[in-house]
């Protein structure tokens, strides 16, 4: 494979282009290859306390909440997330900050030299790269976000001090199965014998608890061992005699409650004033992110039915205040578009649809047809998100909220338009 292998002096862009072309499959589930390379370059030896976070939705916000609560106590923290919105560097954070390109390049050089003839996918390479960077910085804690599923995801090669499942719903059905029980079983694959396994899902499939009991995981279950009670402006969190009430944060309060339970189980829960301060200031890019106040514009990565339902809940608050909701949607072809859209039909007044570029992008015509089938008014079809925004924004009034959603790619294009 002497096909222009980048070097330590190559750019990060050159390395990423190389990683995109060296493996025959974009998604290649299984741990054998990635575990073998990790062992060869010393990444399976314990170097930090690792918290492994899986879930259909809420992984990113739960991970960011854990990161912030640990940082507020003075610990050093490495956080791994995917996919990124704008820059690859978003995937690896040290103490809340992205690291410079050269750290990624150095990590990729180490992996390339150590992998021998073993082929790795883009995601596997990136996961090992993140672990190599965390080892280099010798952080106290690593918050590792699972990419897809759990059991056969590249992140599952590590030995965690806690395993977390945020929510369980249908997504990536071609890989994880078409029932919540099958999806839950795949996600429960990150559990370990005797290791805390915290489940934030409020309607837990039996396959999750069956697997946890079979391997004697130390399960902490939502609705049984801890409780999350939402109110209009606050939420309550109950766990082992503790009962705290906090103002709703800028992330789903359910995910904040899950993060608090993880830290309480690990005896890492901060003081009450620290928790309150962290939650009050917590924001995650692309999660109901405000792009403009006048006109009022938000963007959200919601791309499956569960995340669309939460988005509908957020938008309903504005609808109840008299705002008209205009949705601009662009999605990937392999997502459950019909049910994601159905979750929002009661709250959205007018729709615009845009195409997403790339081999997985869905055409605006397909989405417009879906909306027509459920008698939703489509104001316009556009070749891309940028073209749609150029047309929509000049005609908006101060009683309309524009929500741009449907994919990480959709949000990235919206954010880049504003920047």
From TrEMBL:
Name of the protein in its database record: Dihydrofolate synthase/folylpolyglutamate synthase
Family: Belongs to the folylpolyglutamate synthase family.
Known role: Functions in two distinct reactions of the de novo folate biosynthetic pathway. Catalyzes the addition of a glutamate residue to dihydropteroate (7,8-dihydropteroate or H2Pte) to form dihydrofolate (7,8-dihydrofolate monoglutamate or H2Pte-Glu). Also catalyzes successive additions of L-glutamate to tetrahydrofolate or 10-formyltetrahydrofolate or 5,10-methylenetetrahydrofolate, leading to folylpolyglutamate derivatives.
Transmembrane segment boundaries: none
Superkingdom to which the source organism belongs: Bacteria
Entry's Gene Ontology molecular function annotations: dihydrofolate synthase activity; tetrahydrofolylpolyglutamate synthase activity
Catalysed reactions, as listed in the record: (6R)-5,10-methylenetetrahydrofolyl-(gamma-L-Glu)(n) + L-glutamate + ATP = (6R)-5,10-methylenetetrahydrofolyl-(gamma-L-Glu)(n+1) + ADP + phosphate + H(+); 10-formyltetrahydrofolyl-(gamma-L-Glu)(n) + L-glutamate + ATP = 10-formyltetrahydrofolyl-(gamma-L-Glu)(n+1) + ADP + phosphate + H(+); 7,8-dihydropteroate + L-glutamate + ATP = 7,8-dihydrofolate + ADP + phosphate + H(+); (6S)-5,6,7,8-tetrahydrofolyl-(gamma-L-Glu)(n) + L-glutamate + ATP = (6S)-5,6,7,8-tetrahydrofolyl-(gamma-L-Glu)(n+1) + ADP + phosphate + H(+)
UniProt-listed Enzyme Commission number(s): 6.3.2.12, 6.3.2.17
Keyword entries, A-Z: ATP-binding, Folate biosynthesis, Ligase, Magnesium, Metal-binding, Nucleotide-binding
Pathway listed: Cofactor biosynthesis; tetrahydrofolylpolyglutamate biosynthesis; Cofactor biosynthesis; tetrahydrofolate biosynthesis; 7,8-dihydrofolate from 2-amino-4-hydroxy-6-hydroxymethyl-7,8-dihydropteridine diphosphate and 4-aminobenzoate: step 2/2
Domain Mur ligase C-terminal: 286-408
Pfam entry (one): Mur_ligase_C
InterPro entries documented for this protein: Folylpolyglutamate_synth (IPR001645), Folylpolyglutamate_synth_CS (IPR018109), Mur-like_cat_sf (IPR036565), Mur_ligase_C (IPR004101), Mur_ligase_C_dom_sf (IPR036615), Mur_ligase_cen (IPR013221)
Gene responsible for this protein: folC
């Amino acid at each position: 494979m002497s096909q222009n292998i980048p070097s330590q002096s190559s750019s990060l862009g050159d390395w990423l282009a190389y990683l995109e072309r060296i493996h025959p499959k974009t998604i290649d589930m299984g741990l054998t290859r990635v575990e073998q390379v990790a062992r060869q370059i010393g990444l399976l030896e314990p170097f930090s306390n690792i918290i492994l976070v899986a879930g259909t939705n809420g992984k990113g916000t739960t991970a960011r909440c854990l990161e912030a609560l640990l940082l507020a106590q003075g610990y050093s923290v490495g956080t791994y997330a995917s996919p990124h919105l704008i820059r690859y560097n978003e995937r690896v954070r040290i103490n809340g900050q992205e690291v410079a390109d050269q750290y990624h390049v150095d990590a990729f050089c180490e992996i390339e030299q150590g992998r021998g003839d073993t082929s790795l996918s883009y995601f596997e390479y990136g996961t090992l790269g993140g672990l190599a960077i965390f080892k280099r910085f010798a952080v106290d804690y690593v918050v590792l976000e699972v990419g897809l599923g759990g059991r056969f995801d590249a992140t599952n090669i590590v030995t965690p001090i806690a395993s977390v499942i945020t929510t369980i719903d249908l997504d990536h059905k071609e890989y994880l199965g078409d029932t919540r029980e099958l999806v839950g079983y795949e996600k429960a694959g990150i559990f370990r014998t005797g290791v805390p396994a915290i489940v934030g899902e409020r309607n837990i499939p039996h396959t999750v608890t069956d697997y946890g009991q079979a391997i004697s995981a130390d399960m902490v279950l939502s609705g049984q061992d801890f409780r999350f009670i939402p109110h209009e402006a606050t939420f309550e969190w109950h766990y082992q005699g503790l009962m705290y009430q906090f103002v709703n944060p800028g992330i789903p309060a359910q995910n904040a409650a899950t993060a608090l339970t993880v830290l309480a189980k690990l005896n890492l829960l901060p003081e009450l004033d620290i928790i309150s301060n962290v939650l009050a200031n917590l924001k995650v890019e692309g999660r109901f992110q405000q792009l403009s106040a006048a006109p009022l514009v938000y963007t959200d990565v919601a791309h499956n039915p569960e995340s669309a339902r939460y988005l509908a809940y957020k938008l309903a608050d504005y609808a109840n205040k008299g705002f008209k909701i205009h949705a601009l949607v662009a999605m990937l072809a392999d997502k459950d578009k019909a049910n994601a859209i159905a979750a929002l039909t009661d709250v959205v007044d007018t729709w615009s649809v845009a195409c997403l570029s790339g081999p997985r992008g869905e055409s605006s015509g397909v989405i417009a047809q879906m909306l027509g089938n459920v008698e939703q008014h489509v104001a316009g079809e556009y070749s891309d998100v940028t073209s749609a925004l150029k047309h929509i924004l000049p005609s908006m009034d101060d009683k309309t909220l524009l929500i741009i959603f449907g994919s990480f790619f959709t949000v990235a294009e919206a954010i880049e338009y504003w920047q």
